């Protein structure tokens, strides 16, 4: 009953909205023949005025009157043969009324034959219980999450959900899913590699120390797969160790099949790294170990010193985009936003083309806008 009442009210409202404008009196416009008659009558008055002023003779005036009168008779005859403007407006309005009223009447007559007004609504839980091929990606994810909430040890569920999270850009959820799968059934290549990729997604593209350790383990589990080696090389480049990245990739390339589909890309990457200028060095492993043994104040001072060295190195070698990325990120970690903006501005001034756009996109991922740096 509630459905029918709602349907009646909505139909009435929609019909009323369309019909109301048709009931208003619009400004009456003279039809074309009326306008013509007025013009011809003005012409007759002008002929009389010209005759009175002596501008034309009586014969010319009479001839003009005859011609204008002939035209007036023609217009009046055409007006009698054509429906009046009022009749046209009334007939058009009546036709519009009939058409508007016919739509809801036809709809109400057809819906009981083909519709299903008594069908209950289908909430999310019911949609998830429906056939999976009818669900959207978000509904499938919700279905998997609901299943895993009730069956947290379902290894297959975690293995399926984790890469979906990663493709959807949900890095933290992907990392948790991979960790759950590893906790239940242990490490394998795909889970270990996926966990490392999820950590990179969380860090905004940076290969962290934890991710590096995970990729090292993935390289052991999949010695013939290029992906762990690529990520490890990327981390070495970020640390200013481009020569080590070249050695790693070249050693892997030497033992790889000649028809490997990724060979050309790796060769291109190696060539680019060999031609790149030396990057400012980041903290060494000895410095990291020494920092771990210091107090909080001393450790902060040591970090500040390493960042200052990186900043000074970039003033001498301003073409290193990876160095600028590390400097901007370091200042953000130190909660020195103004310094990060200054570094971004200097980097944008020093770089050109794709490298400048790359730095701008990297900074945007950290919450820095290039427009804020350029003032």
TrEMBL record:
Main location: other
Keywords from the UniProt entry: Cytochrome c-type biogenesis, Membrane, Repeat, TPR repeat, Transmembrane, Transmembrane helix
Transmembrane segments: 6-23, 94-114
Pfam families, per the entry: TPR_CcmH_CycH
Occurrences of domain Cytochrome c-type biogenesis protein H TPR (ranges): 146-261
Top-level taxon of origin: Bacteria
Compartments in which it is found: Cell envelope
Record-level GO BP terms: cytochrome complex assembly
GO cellular component annotations of the record: cell envelope; plasma membrane
InterPro entries tied to this protein: C-type_cytochrome_biogenesis, Cyt_c_biogenesis_CcmI, TPR-like_helical_dom_sf, TPR_CcmH_CycH
UniProt name for this protein: C-type cytochrome biogenesis protein CcmI
Originating gene: ccmI
């Amino acid at each position: 009953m509630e459905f029918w009442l709602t349907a009646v009210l909505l139909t009435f409202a929609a019909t009323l909205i369309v019909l109301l404008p048709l009931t208003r009196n619009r400004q009456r416009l003279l039809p074309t023949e009326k306008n013509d008659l007025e013009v011809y009558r003005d012409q007759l008055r002008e002929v009389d005025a010209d005759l009175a002023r002596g501008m034309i003779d009586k014969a010319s005036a009479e001839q003009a009157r005859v011609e204008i009168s002939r035209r007036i008779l023609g217009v009046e005859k055409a007006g009698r043969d054509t429906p009046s403007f009022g009749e046209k407006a009334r007939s058009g309005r009546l036709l519009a009324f009939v058409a508007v009223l016919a739509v809801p009447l036809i709809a109400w007559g057809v819906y009981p034959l083909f519709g299903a007004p008594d069908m209950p609504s289908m909430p999310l839980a019911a949609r998830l219980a429906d056939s999976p091929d009818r669900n959207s990606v978000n509904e499938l994810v919700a279905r998997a999450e609901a299943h895993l909430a009730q069956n947290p040890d379902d290894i297959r569920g975690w293995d399926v959900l984790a890469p979906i999270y990663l493709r959807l850009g949900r890095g933290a959820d992907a990392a948790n899913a991979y960790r759950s799968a590893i906790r239940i059934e242990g490490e394998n290549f795909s889970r270990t590699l996926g966990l490392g990729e999820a950590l990179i997604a969380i860090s905004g593209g940076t290969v962290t120390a934890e991710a590096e350790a995970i990729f090292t383990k993935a390289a052991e589990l999949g010695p013939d797969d290029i992906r762990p080696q690529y990520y490890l090389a990327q981390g070495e480049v970020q640390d200013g160790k481009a020569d080590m990245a070249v050695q790693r990739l070249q050693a892997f390339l030497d033992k790889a099949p000649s028809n490997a589909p990724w060979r050309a890309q790796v060769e291109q990457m190696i060539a680019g790294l060999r031609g790149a200028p030396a990057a400012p060095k980041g903290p060494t492993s000895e410095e990291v170990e020494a920092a771990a043994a210091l107090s909080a104040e001393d450790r902060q001072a040591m970090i500040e010193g390493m960042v200052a060295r990186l900043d000074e190195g970039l003033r001498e070698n301003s073409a290193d985009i990876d160095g600028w990325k590390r400097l901007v990120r370091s200042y953000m970690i130190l909660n020195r936003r103004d310094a990060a903006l200054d570094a971004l501005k200097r980097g944008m001034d020093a770089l050109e083309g794709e490298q400048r756009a790359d730095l701008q996109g990297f900074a945007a991922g950290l919450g820095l806008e290039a427009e804020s740096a350029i003032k």
